[in-house]
Amino acid sequence: MNIFKTSFLLNKRFLGKAGFVILLLMVILFAVLLNAVASRPHGVITIALSGDQEDPLYASVRDRLMSSASMVVYSEYKSGQAAEEAVRFGECDEAWIFEKNSSRLLDEYVSGSSSSKPVTVIEMKDTVARRLAREDLSAALSSHLAERILADEYGKVTKNGAGREKLARYYSDAFYADDVFRYVNAEGIESAPGSYLTYPVRGFLAVAMLLCGLVVSMYFNRDENNMVFSPAPAAKRPVISLVYHFTGILDVGAVSLAALYICGSAVFLPLELISMLVMCLACTFTGMILGRVIRSEAVFSTVSAFIAISQLIINPVFLDVPGLTPLRVLTPVFFYIRIPDDTRYLVYLLIYTAAAGILALAAYLPDIIPRRRSLPPSH
Amino acid sequence: MTLKKNLAAQLKRFFSFFPISAAVSLVLALIVSVTGSLIYINRKSDETDRIVNIGLTGFLDDTYMDLAINSLTTLDSTRNSVKLVKLGADEADRALRTGEVGAYVVFPENFIKEAIDGNFQKISIVTADGSKSFSSKILNELIRSVAEMVISFQKAVYGYQQAVYDYGYSTEEMYSLGSNMAFRIIDAVLERDGMFRIQAAEPYGEGSLAGDTASGVISGVTAVFIMLWGIVSCGAFISRRDGLSKVMASKGNGAARQTAAEYAAYLVFMLSQILILGLAFCAVFSLTPLREVTGPVPFSFIASLILPVIMISSLQFLIYEASGGILGGVLIHFILGCGMGYVCGCFYPAYFFPRQIQQIARWLPLWQARVHINEVLLSGPVSPLPCVIMLLFAAVFLLAAAAVRRGRIKAEGGLS
Amino acid sequence: MEIKVRNIEKSYRSGTGRRKKILQGLDLDAAGGECIGIAGKNGCGKSTLLSVLAGVQKADAGSFLMDGTELFSRPRDLSRNVGLVPQAPALMDELSALDNLLMWYPKRDIIKELDSGVLGMLGIGDFLRTRVRNLSGGMKKRLSIGCVMHTMPPVLLLDEPCAALDLECRENILGYVRDYVSKGGLAVLTSHDPMELEICTRHYIMKDGRLSPYSYDGDVTKLVSSL
Q1: Cβ-Cβ contacts under 8 Å, A17 against chain B
Q2: CATH (residue range A45-174)
Q3: Which of A109, A174, A194 sits opposite B195 (nearest CB)?
Q4: Chain A residues touching B213 at Cβ < 8 A
Q5: What is the ipTM score, two decimals?
Q6: Do A227 and C56 touch (CB under 8 A)?
Q7: What's the pLDDT score for residue A235?
Q8: Element spanning B391, H or E
Q9: What topology does CATH give the domain C2-88+154-226?
Q10: Which of A179, B236, B357, C52 has its CA 20 to 30 A from that of B184?
């Protein structure tokens, strides 16, 4: 029994199943759709902005807000009333309306000479996204506020104060701070901009690969029960099982890799290829172990449901819930998700795979080691 | 074979899987509640119920920056959910990998001094996923806002010191005035909401698409959970025999009657599963510290799942009917359930998606299920429209399943 | 070539959780050129015996000697020398007959065997390119035998080889078994079918996990009462 030939034929068999092909196409379709979705404007909250175009404070804050890559989507309206209507009709979640003379009002706010506020916020519901957006507004206003506080304090300790322009120079000369941040991963590498909408694809596909390992295991058990591999020596079963599992998972792995590229979630090709192959092996061994432990299809399907749900919760697929690391290391999904941003996880995945391989081998030991304790023929 | 007899037989068939699935349900409830309890206890002992820790590392010795950072970590609306922790470089790296911190911020060496000298070095925000996930982007947004404010106010303090020095104050006086300025800055940071006049808007019609996040997540996850729980029945569906369908059809039990009997049995099975799961969660939640968070799970919540279960189980039935086998049972359920759940706002709130996608997603089954469960969770009035749509969906899925069955019986040369 | 099967024991955990002994110290002696027929009630352990002898399942105890060599401790030899044709054809439905053969034979051997060997005798060439799921029961059974014969095993175990097959198919398969035996092979088949039992040179009845010799004379009523 030639391993490569067996693998080729098994592959032919899997791809001969209409359901399997539809499934692979579904993965690709999902990636294409998600990529299309992520290319449209989206964010956690939509803010209606409005103010006097001539007002320097409004113009500066608007430019700062609308030019930054943020999870808040800004939409400018011609008048405060239009912005308010946008909120009331559900087009936007909140409106920030800058008063006509917002610059002067901010001065007065700092000096405490007036109770009028430079910005009116029209809000609907109090959500986390709203709080986040409000901090964005505070940050955008902070330089203006700080500059005015500087001027106000300076005026208090000097006889005649100083001109606004001169103080503004003191403020801006303190130090230059434009484009303050760099966003890096654990290896200090700046990440390419990407949408949070396509980020879950990697985790989602990793769980799908793990489930594929279980599905292939169910098929393998069924074939074993039907004695499909009975003509092969028992000692060869682990090899057949390995080839069988790996072949099935590799198909899903290849499609997953394509899906990652379609979504723009893939990184350096050699790293992606290596991690995908190791992931396929890890899922192969996990499937082999579970396949040996669970022989009933009913139990297997129930366990599959359990694994699908628990993996989505435990791993940082959609949300990263802290404190779950001890549970995450039970399957290869977590390591695979983290590899693009921290290559140390590839080493962890290799260790996991080696450990799973040893366990899988142990699970097949009764087949490999011939039974020595046979009674003498004369008995 | 009458419809009644067929139903009884199908019920027996499905319920032969009940002990296994009930046992797994209990284990799942137990694991979720133990994990949840451990996290809850862990967080509770950590001063407050903060959601996420952010590490600060690098150059943090500047007095004014320290003041500014401390001012931002004090209690106010946003920072209630964030805790800033000062860490060494190695500690920060380890804490990020173990999940103790969601991100850490690296201030370059001599950050302020270098900045004053005109060498502004960028601040690094380090996240485990390179700022690509939703959690990281939220964290980045928060950190960026916080740091932007810190830098603005630092510039004000240093600019002010320079200005008063140039005016003629001595160095000592300059530092003293600088400190006073720093305290005013802290006040300004804490009172920053004072810049806004807040006005509540009354919605016209449906109002904003943004919903209540907590109940939205629970209802969304519940809808996907029901969908994925269909995988449990894989064992029951793959043991069906097509030959039996042909024989039953010849005895007057056509595709429609077969579908009706099998679906009814499957529905009872799914409802009982969800009931068991619901009761298991209620029981273990009431026995663990999670009761302080969730309170008693209302009966109305479990009751609200009936319509979604009717609709989702009919979709699951159609998937099994159309694809059959283990593949359809596990992988198609997973990919369809997660994919649809994702765009329907079951994992992230729907308003995170582009508006056009939201409009399309409104017509998908899991959107309707989520909306219905959410309404019940919020104890508001239950709109009839999602209920009607869910029943319509169920009817369409069952008709499609019957059509598939009829086609298969015909293909095998049977009477349909 | 001769085989000696000694004191085979095999037990299962039953649905109630108790262990049920299905084979209890079973012995069997046979030689090449013989066809052994084993009859017995459903569930008496006939299929289990064949699975154990083919190494698909492990015996709890006992030995299987071929010309003095213990085969249970030599899985490779066991696999090469013993072929099992299970009751349900052990094939991959989604693949063609040729693909199923390719799992076991090198391609050039298939051509040779189809031309003048076992595959040709079994008539597999008629449906070589057809998918297994579209084959009839008889074709599947022939293909199943064809797959097993890739090592030309001197011992062929057949589990109810003609169950649910029409007369022509039965004749075809039994004809092959006869030919195999006539060339010095040892066939062991389990059966309830008089037509199958008739081609056997020796008969056994399986009862209480053991084999008892039986002299089959074509009288089915007598056979039934002996089970």
Answers
A1: 325, 327
A2: 3.40.190.10
A3: A109
A4: 127-129
A5: 0.78
A6: yes
A7: 76
A8: helix B384-411
A9: Rossmann fold (3.40.50)
A10: A179
